[in-house]
């Protein structure tokens, strides 16, 4: 969005653009001749006819099937009575939605939001200097080892991660036994414990997300800044961070989404002792609800989607604003 | 200046050291935990592994899913992203929205939706060919429905990785140059654009691979048994073995990804450094 030198507003303009390029391309051969010859001569077009649509169509079709259908199922299901309801299955109702924002469900929703917002913030703040240290490292081997390890850990965030932390900081974990942490009031199966575990996959995710942007920072910018007498701090404050801001915001949103949606870690580690919304949905999907409330799972899913959508809605204008500074 | 540089180097060293400790401690503790019998050192959590029922099956199942997912993801995303870099602004916005939307739908919610769709099969579509399709994509030996879900989940991550790479490369100029030199279309993309995107392509592959290898939510709720679900099930009976497998799965995944990055490095070595 930011690097394109001349945004092309319409396909007609794009065509003109490509013709211009094509003319320049074959310039030495075709241009001096009759302009009409241009039509018959093999033109070097910037892109093949219909190329953009042809290249993007598979993605759009896939998206319509894999994303559209489940989305429709959620939208319909959240507002209709469950198939297992005693009467009136399939008819319109808002009872699923009201049930999904009351009592235990509302506690779980707030718990999930709080956990995600906090862990994503810490993840961004810690991940940025770490990624910078890795990117500028002289040792390529270490760089690649860290990046691939990040790739693993960012999604190691699942069952294996939960077991690793139970073995480390759980009630019978090695560190817990070694330092008698339980007597100091430590427990892994709390909000704080879960925060530590979540950071274990969120920080690597941040490193993976921000590394390409950090690699895009040109050495010349730093040199120019220091030639003008800027300190390291001034370089970061006035040059690097403003450039990185869209990527950082994008990273925060991605981390929030990842933490908000994380299910496996919590499921394998704490069971239901911490109220989190994904656990409730999985519970409802496997039938652990009152008869006739099967569609509450879909209503809860809609709640999650709404929260995630609000976050995106906050993020997009911010990102557009910072993108303006870049161009 | 030299003083400043050395200060930066020290700062970097400290950052890496602290981070290294944070990330290594749980791994080391897990290894100790898995070999620490009450009586002393014992490797039985590891030696019993290969004989454990379902271990190899779930592992190959997961690797197959991962390979197919990565290929499908790249085939869908790479042409689309290169095309919109060259093409219209409007189409680029569409693709950006399409690739960001899965972020709005958490995996658990997506799974709930998938279950809803699959339920349409027996409920409404019994006499139509769609019913056969719905049955076919749930084939237990290779559930296409999981691949669909995995590719969708990987879209935002892979898109960001690829887009960040494309942002640093002036695709338009590269393609113009290649075309002006007489390269055909496929050649311009494959030999000029893609090599410049190698880092981004590897990144996208990394993320997708790791995502599939660790995926638990969808597969467990839909009732399939890839590696992560198997670990969870095994953990119910034998805590030590599940920790052992967790460590092993980390190592397996890491080695796999390191090998992938080694492939990338080899390619890089064959060509002269780009300016």
From TrEMBL, chain A:
Domain of life, per lineage: Bacteria
Listed InterPro entries: MetI-like (IPR000515), MetI-like_sf (IPR035906)
Chief location category: membrane
Membrane topology listed for this record: Multi-pass membrane protein
Xref: CDD domains: TM_PBP2
The keyword Cell membrane is assigned to this record: yes
Annotated keywords: Cell membrane, Membrane, Transmembrane, Transmembrane helix, Transport
Location of this chain's protein in the cell: Cell membrane
Family the entry assigns: Belongs to the binding-protein-dependent transport system permease family. CysTW subfamily.
Protein name, entry field: ABC transporter permease subunit
UniProtKB/TrEMBL annotation, chain B:
Regions crossing the membrane: 12-33, 65-86, 98-121, 141-162, 200-223, 243-264
Domain ABC transmembrane type-1 positions: 59-260
Annotated localization: Cell inner membrane; Cell membrane
Gene3D superfamilies: MetI-like
Annotated InterPro entries: MetI-like, MetI-like_sf
Its membrane topology: Multi-pass membrane protein
Pfam families linked: BPD_transp_1 (PF00528)
Keyword field: Cell inner membrane, Cell membrane, Membrane, Transmembrane, Transmembrane helix, Transport
Predominant location category: membrane
Protein family: Belongs to the binding-protein-dependent transport system permease family.
Record's protein name: ABC transporter permease subunit
Organism phylogeny: Bacteria, Bacillati, Actinomycetota, Actinomycetes, Kitasatosporales
